[in-house]
TrEMBL record:
<dbReference type="InterPro" id="IPR000719">
    <property type="entry name" value="Prot_kinase_dom"/>
</dbReference>
<dbReference type="InterPro" id="IPR011009">
    <property type="entry name" value="Kinase-like_dom_sf"/>
</dbReference>
<protein>
    <submittedName>
        <fullName>CAMK protein kinase</fullName>
    </submittedName>
</protein>
<feature type="domain" description="Protein kinase">
    <location>
        <begin position="62"/>
        <end position="321"/>
    </location>
</feature>
<keyword id="KW-0418">Kinase</keyword>
<dbReference type="GO" id="GO:0004672">
    <property type="term" value="F:protein kinase activity"/>
</dbReference>
<dbReference type="GO" id="GO:0005524">
    <property type="term" value="F:ATP binding"/>
</dbReference>
<feature type="signal peptide">
    <location>
        <begin position="1"/>
        <end position="17"/>
    </location>
</feature>
<keyword id="KW-0732">Signal</keyword>
<keyword id="KW-0808">Transferase</keyword>
<dbReference type="Pfam" id="PF00069">
    <property type="entry name" value="Pkinase"/>
</dbReference>
Amino acid sequence: MIKTAILLATLLSFIKPEEIKFEFEGEDITNVLLFINRSVNKCLVYKKSEDRNEFFENIKCPQFLRPIKITQCSAVFEFLFYGKKYAIKTYARSRKTKRCEEEIVTQLKHKNVIEVYATYSAITYNRYKKKNEQVFWIISEYLNLVIDYKYMMHDEHRLRVFCRNVCEGLIYIHKKGVAHLDLKFGNLMGNIDENGVVQYKIIDFGFSRYCNKNEEIHLPKKYYGTYPFEPPETYFKSIYTQKSDIWCFGAIVYFTACKRGLFYTNGERDYDMYESFLTGNLKHEFNSSASEELKDFVLSCMKIYRHDRPSARKLLNHPFLNVDI
């Protein structure tokens, strides 16, 4: 039943740049998607993330597949196809859930946004959950540089290049009427070319929504975003806007330049501390090495009242970024 469903998988979108001389179609890709679906379903049986990750890392894959990352709701594999690496992301959802990722990503084409080549969808039977699910697979470019705060710390030149790239990506998606809604280190990656030049890109549009410049989305029964990157309006009121992305962007930069590890106590989330910060009672604390321009950039992004935050386009002209790099 599963194989039949996948053989009938609907190709939702296919983008074939001139340099790509093949299509992701036929029995070969069907078997790859089938293998990924079965493997991920087995992993998700484990409720504890440690057990789930261990099982995922030890999946016995064909030589052209390698497990990269798994969460409670999605997984990513490296896929080697005719000598070139790609990434395959998969996730399942209820048909009632209104997610837009597979539709949004096929409409985005920008140097600072991950490039998607194809998306597939099928209704499959999950024998572990004993129910039908709508499963999606997204085939995209493979990015070879993982970003975290340690990579950016104590190097304002690198941070400035990174911020300009992310800012240009945000300008583009916001102009397209899309809000990302989950900007964090884990959703920003880089690609190092043969000359050693890094291009930073926004990835993973799993929480993204269509949202125009002045539009506000109220989702009282939904919770998007990741601790501790959520802006005040999201954390307290479940309000989502393009300006929510600006706060998250500022938080990313702040965590590279803050004085100490924040919002965790003894390894546990400190919600009291975080709420004090979101209401303005706990102030920003920067490393002594942080420039005044960097501090002002962060404070501009992380204004408590969302309407006071600049747009991504205005941020690109901020003194911290308005330097010849």
